[in-house]
Design a protein that fits this description.
about 325 residues, Rossmann fold, alpha/beta
Length: about 325
């Protein structure tokens, strides 16, 4: 039995989605259960059973392989009353809360922690040994769409929290709109006080559309985060690439490991570079098609059928 433990409190959280996608892949090969110490977001429970951890009722995983998707929250004392065969912890959050795991799982009867990392950069920050596991993306769900038509449309999506937006994003979005580019931001209501109203700028709430539908309605994708925030992986960038979109993204993030500038996307330093790259894509349909096709091929090579065979074997062994 494989037990996947996560908070499951945010329907739009990347780690929550990672855990659910991992569940969907692994349950084809082994019995898998989902667990949470918190009340899950009801939208995440649709079609899946997420069991609540209730120590007083002895309701928690006790043996087997325990996979903790995320090392950034405190796990209750119930862990000390388990006898797992394996403990696997995914570290994908840019702070050192993972260090608490050395104390939590340091019991004579417990196996050593097996670490997973969202990216090579995240792994390098810890100096721990482990495996890099890109967050799984369903290539059947995220695939190229028809596009939006006119005008040329740039978009991005994320959770609607400050750290997910670069300080210079409002100025960049306004410059794009003034150049005749439509800018569509899902999860961008928090920008209303920082971004002047413009007829070509659309700010949507989180989850206004399924992410694949939103992405399939774009011509290109843009993504940057706050300068003091390290994006451990940025699965939404790979989802956009799987949809055949050219991506213009900041260099600071785990996703950058999969992008070669001018080949399958564009890594940028500042607003001027990002604006220039977007306008090149707008004005050159052949370039847009070539970059988008290479982006889709990158996602296909990375994910195959959702998770590389060696990663499936890692969980099953």
């Amino acid at each position: 039995m494989i037990h996947i433990v996560q908070q499951f409190t945010n329907a739009f959280g990347g780690t929550e989605i990672h855990a659910l996608n991992l569940y969907d892949v692994l349950r084809r090969h082994a019995p898998v259960r989902l667990w949470s110490e918190f009340d899950p977001d009801p939208r995440l429970r649709a079609g899946r059973q997420i069991d609540l951890i209730r120590p007083k009722r002895l309701a928690f995983p006790k043996t087997g392989t325990m996979v903790f998707c995320g090392a950034c929250w405190y796990v209750g004392p119930w862990l000390e009353y388990t006898a797992p065969r394996r403990i696997i912890v995914l570290h994908n959050y840019p702070h050192d809360s993972y260090k608490a795991w050395f104390q939590r799982a340091r019991r004579p009867w417990m196996p050593p922690i097996e670490w997973l990392f969202a990216s090579e950069q995240m792994k390098a920050q810890t100096e721990l040994k482990g495996i890099v596991e890109p967050s799984p993306v369903d290539l059947q769900r995220f695939r190229p769409g028809a596009g939006p038509g006119q005008p040329f449309t740039v978009g991005r999506l994320s959770r609607d929290v400050p750290e997910k937006f670069h300080e210079d994003d409002p100025a960049l979005y306004l410059r794009l709109a003034e150049a005749g580019v439509r800018v569509r931001i899902m999860g961008g209501l928090g920008l209303r006080t920082r971004l002047p109203a413009h007829p070509l700028i659309e700010l949507w709430p989180e989850g206004a559309q399924p992410p694949e539908v939103f992405l399939q309605g774009l011509d290109a994708f843009i993504y940057r985060t706050r300068s003091d925030w390290f994006e451990a992986f940025g699965r939404v960038v790979l989802e956009a690439m799987a949809c055949g979109l050219p991506v213009v993204v900041d260099r600071c993030g785990g996703y950058a490991e999969h992008i070669q500038r001018g080949d399958n996307g564009f890594l940028t330093h500042n607003n001027d570079e990002a604006l220039s790259d977007m306008l090149r894509l707008r004005d050159d349909p052949a370039l847009r098609q070539r970059i988008g096709a290479a982006a889709r091929a990158t996602a296909q090579a990375l994910y195959g059928e959702g998770l590389p065979r060696e990663m499936i074997e890692f969980y099953l062994r």
